[in-house]
Amino acid sequence: MKHRLTPSQAKTAIFLLFANRFPSKMSKAGALDLASGVGGNIEKDEILSAVDKYEKYHTTFGGLDEERIANYTDVVNKYYDLVTSFYEYGWGESFHFAPRWKGESLSESIKRHEHFFALQLGLKAGQKVLDVGCGIGGPLREIARFSSTSVTGLNNNEYQIARAKVLNGVAGVEQTCNFEKADFMKMPFPDNSFDAVYAIEATCHAPDIVGCYKEIYRVLKPGQYFAADEWCMTEAFDPNNQEHQQIKAEIELGDGLPDIRSTRQCLAALKEAGFEVIWEKDLAKDSPLPWYLPIDTSQFSLKNFRVTSIGRFFTRNMIKAFEYMGIAPKGSQRVQAFLEKAAEGLFVGGKKEIFTPIYFFLARKPQ
Ligand SMILES: C[S@@+](CC[C@H](N)C(=O)[O-])C[C@H]1O[C@@H](n2cnc3c(N)ncnc32)[C@H](O)[C@@H]1O
């Protein structure tokens, strides 16, 4: 479906791109924050070469799976330095998808999904909780306020932690919640430290999923729960189908991933790590609205304007102009381009039901 903008719609579009606040209040980032944040902690004049290096890790650019896995810290950190301001600008403070009910906005569905995690984990006031791969802390703040718990956010990306601390101050949870910069494959916590652990669309970055779940198992108290949303290829994915493999490679390139695992592999890894699986399900299966609706370019939404096809068209041209004027660093357009490719891969993968970002499980560490 094609959309033509009237002059007043075009004015609204420009306002929405530059406004420091989304109508949904999901994002605190305006267009200038986006431009100045591209590249995160990478030196501005090194961003273009970082994009080159990042792309070359991936099969689409001739990279090898083994090399990408061996260098996962560099792949993931480069990726999040490059993309975080785009995520914050387009998606808000929580960097995940969610099942969605009819009549629910994207931001409402995201918050409800975070509350779902708190309820599944049975969180109680005062408990110590760990958020594995916490992004800039959107879920952490929502879950901490919803359940009156103290949440520690673990993240290996310095730039995201700096953003997360600022936003915790704005939300007023800086006394009860904190952050640790570390790799979730080697956590800096003693055994049996946390009353609950969750990971939302983060452990898909792990180079070895059994090793990652074992680390989570180690820091969780006995008898307590671990819940996660995993990015997975579903049973419908056919490894011998070229088109399926291409979609998988596009998602890996656009999302900083080593190798997307199947739902079956994740389930087996949980058991191998020692967990008792309480329940698991691909929540995409009975979501009344598809999780990929916000990235469906045939849809238009004023509330989520920046992720619509018109919003992306404006952002693309704005980034081009900003890069030309020196407001956005060189390489910004390349980042925007691989993110658009990622959105296409995610959309097609979701529509074909060969990929899901919301394979949910609740697991328990035995007493
Ligand atoms: C898609 S984001 C999700 C963030 C957050 N859970 C949310 O929903 O907003 C994935 C996060 O995992 C973090 N991450 C990836 N690999 C990591 C690792 N090895 N150790 C710690 N954090 C990691 C990234 O830095 C990023 O913050």
Task: Describe this structure as you would to a colleague.
It is a single chain. 45% of the residues lie in helices and 14% in strands. The protein contains 13 helices and seven strands. The chain has helices spanning 7-18, 31-37, 47-56, 65-70, 72-90, 106-121, 138-147, 158-171, 209-219, 242-255, 263-272, 309-325, 332-351, and strands spanning 128-132, 150-155, 178-181, 194-200, 220-233, 276-282, 355-364. Helix 2 packs antiparallel against helix 5 (72-90), helix 9 crosses helix 11 (263-272) and helix 12 (309-325) runs antiparallel to helix 13 (332-351). The protein is globular and about 60 Å long. The protein starts with 6 loop residues before the first helix and ends with a strand. The structure holds S-adenosylmethionine (SAM). S-adenosylmethionine is lined by residues 76, 80, 94-96, 133-135, 138-139, 154-157, 160, 183-185, 200-202, 205.
